[in-house]
Structures are given as C-alpha cells and as structure tokens.
Amino acid sequence: MPDKTVKTHCCFCGQQCGVQLKVKENTIVGIEPWYEFPFNRGMLCPKGVKRYLQQAHPDRLLHAYEKDSSSRSGFRKLAYDTAIARVAEAIERIQREHGPNAFALLSGASLTTEKTYLMGKFAHMCLRTSNIDYNSRLCMVSAAAGNKKAFGIDRAANPWSDILSTDVILVAGANVAECAPITTNYIWQAREHGAKIIVVDPRITPLARTCDLFLPIKPGRDAALFNGILQLMIENDWLDHDFIEQHTVGFDALAGLVREWTPRRTAEVTGIAEKTIRQAAELWGTAKKSFLLHARGIEHHSHGVQNVLSTINIVLASGRIGKPGSGYATITGQANGQGGREHGQKCDQLPGGRDLGNAEHRAYVAGVWGMNPDDLPQPGVDAYELMRKAHSGEIRGLLSICFNPVVSLPTTISCGPRSRSSIFSSPSISS
Ligand code: SF4
Q: Which pTM value belongs to this model?
C-alpha cells in the first residue's frame, strides 16, 4: 500500500498530462489516473504509463563520475562536493584567463521552468557569459521565431479545447498519434462531431491513415504547398477581408508573392496531385471554423521559420483565429519546450520572453536581479554556432545539462580540437 498519492504531471512530453503518483517510503511505486485533470481526464499514453519506472530504475545515474581509463567502464564515481568544486574551479580559471564568454552553457527543455530560469540567471548574472543556448534550438525554435514574427509573441494562440468544436483540422508535419497521443483524442472527438481532418506529411502516419484528405508532400516543400493553398483562397475569395484589414499588414505584397504558386506549379514542386491541393484549399478556405496544428515536420528545416509563417498566412487570411473553435498552434515536443524557452536560457532572451538586446528589458531584469544593466552580457549565438566556437577555441569550457549534443549535434561535436575545451555534463532528468 502506498503512503500517499501525489498529483503531478507526466514529464515525458509537452502534453503534460495530469497523473497521480503512488509513493511509498519516498519512492514512486506506481500511478493512478487523475480523472479530474482537464487536459487528459485520466488518460495516459504508453510512455506516460511507464514513466514512473525511471525514478527507481537501477540504470539511473545517481552519482557524479570522472573519466578513469583504468576502470572497465571508463569512469569512476566522484563525490558531488568534489565534482562541483572542480567545475567551479575550472569555470573561474577559464573565465579569468580567456574572458567571460570563453565559458558556455547548453541547457535543456526537459528542465522545469524554475530550473530554466536559474540556468539563464546563472549564465547572465553569475558567469556574465553571452554563450548559453538550449536544446529546443534543434526542436521547435523555428515555431517560436515564426510566432514572434507574426504575432509579436512566442505563445500558443489557443487552448486545446478549441479543437473539440472546430469544423476542419489541418495537421502539418506532426505525427500526433505517436508523439502527442492525447491530442489524437481531441482530434477524434472533433471528428465525432463531424470535423474533417487534413494531414500534410511525407509519411503515412497513423493519423494520415484515418484522415479525410491526405497530402503526401515531398520533404521540404511545405511553404510551396501553403503558398499554393493561399493562392487558391485568393482566387476563390475564401478570405476574411475585415480581419485582414483590421489585424494584418502586408497582405497585398503577400498576394503578389504567391501569385506564381498556381495549382500546377504547386503540384510539380510538392509532388501532391493538383486535384488534392484544390480539395484541401476548398475544405480549408470554405470552413466556418478551423484549427491548424504543426510540429517538427515543418519546423526542422533550414527554412523552418518560412514554413511556419506560410501556415500562419493561411490562418490569418481565413480570419479564423482568436475565436471559439478556431485557431492555430504548434505542438510542443519536450516536456517544457514552451516554458523552457521563455525564461532566459535561449541565447537572445531574458526571463518572461524578454529580449537580451532590448534596453528596456535589460533594465527591468537587471533591476530584479539587483545588478547594473550594463553588466548583463549581450545576446549570444545559437547552440550550433556555439559548438563551432568551441572547436575554433573561442569557447574553452562547456557545461551541458539535459542536452545530448553527441546525439543532437553529432557532426559538430565529433570534429575539431576537443582537447582545448573542458566539457561537463549532467544527465537528462526526464528523457
Ligand atoms: S502524451 Fe505525453 S505527457 Fe501525456 S502521458 Fe503520454 S508522454 Fe506523458
């Protein structure tokens, strides 16, 4: 029998389903559904059901380690006090010899919001280094940048409950059933009420198998498709002129830009049949209520921001956003993908989505931290550039927490003069 149950969230993915942990003698021994939690109402996916097993798993790392070539594993245990003292000494020495920016941090979106705040504060206030970035750089940061450009804020525009009452759901580059399973239930509930489902994906995902219209796009051609859909919306006047007039800028220029994206050209570039593109544009264009969801499939590209903006264009042209049952969202991947980037561990941000390059924002945060704004470092570079700087010798030490650069940045981590840098890492807590 457990001593108690603790209400919390499944920390595996960005859905953050509610769950109750069964705890005995300070160890998690099982889970109970949390039926009252509004998002998932007691449901969990297979990942969430098993997530609690990690806490007491025998493979879990519970100690600090240092390299030891004489040991069979290549490592030996180290007391945490000793490890922390060695890291602190190395940071002090590297910064004294090479300046504050010679030390860098890679942080992670599986950390809680409070910890991401601390990582940013540690970098900017304590170490005074510009060089901190985080692993959503390789995840949904294109969505963040696209949202900021389009809406002025990097924030979800709608609650998930709007999906339930919508008429048309367009899912682009998101394997919802496998990566955000509880959202599948929202989509299916909408379908129960008659909603049509359009899926854009190079792969026949589980959702694609059951959707009303599947657009099997060639990888990397997303902006072309959405430009083609917008062109058909313009041609057929499936537009909300009042909304465009009152809430957008630059529509005429955009209309000029997408004129060349005729159905034929869009079909040639995307590999999708012209007829299917026309069907998708009509379903989307004539809907009374609609919801567009996308994820890493359109964001993980060198032109991911343009892909995101092209989806936002068809949402804004329809005027179906900020209304019940209508909207737009990017599906968060890692547990704290959204909160993790808002609190100062992104290379150009301060807590609360404030900008490191904005004098007013700098003054505000410096006031909270009790420091001179001039002592805050300037915006740094992204994680990819940060690794280049490590290999060029500009960065001499790196602290990595909940970021797995060997997997996520293999080409940058495996080349270059590693001997010049010290790398300290901490195991991921939830992935
Ligand atoms: S959908 Fe995500 S948050 Fe919900 S149970 Fe599954 S892994 Fe956990």
A: 0.89
Asked, for residue 223, whether it belongs to a domain, the answer is yes
Classify strands 18-24 and 4-9 as parallel, antiparallel or unpaired.
antiparallel
Q: How far apart are CA 143 and CA 124, in angstroms?
A: 25
CA 208 to chain centroid? 22
Q: How confident is the model at residue 214 (pLDDT cuts 50, 70, 90)?
A: very high
Nearest Cα neighbor of 183 from 204, 163, 209 is 163
Q: Are residues 166 and 22 in the same domain?
A: no
Distance CA 2, CA 55 (A): 16
Q: Is 194 left (phi over 0), alpha (psi -120 to 50) or beta?
A: left
Q: Are residues 215 and 198 in the same domain?
A: yes
- Distance (Å, whole) CA 42 – CA 148: 34
Is residue 45 within 6 Å of ligand 1 at its C-beta?
yes
- Minimum-distance ligand 1 atom for the alpha carbon of 16: 3
Domain extent for 413: 97-138+339-426
Question: What is the distance in A from the centroid of ligand 1 to the CA of 47?
Answer: 6
pLDDT digits (tens, 9 = 90+) for 135-186: 888 888 899 999 999 999 888 888 999 999 999 999 999 999 999 999 999 9
The domain boundary residue, chosen from 303, 330, 357: 330
Strand segments (E) across 310-414? 327-330, 349-350, 354-355, 397-401
The whole-angstrom distance between residue 238's C-alpha and the CA centroid of its chain comes to 31
Listed residues 265, 295, 330: the one ending a domain: 330
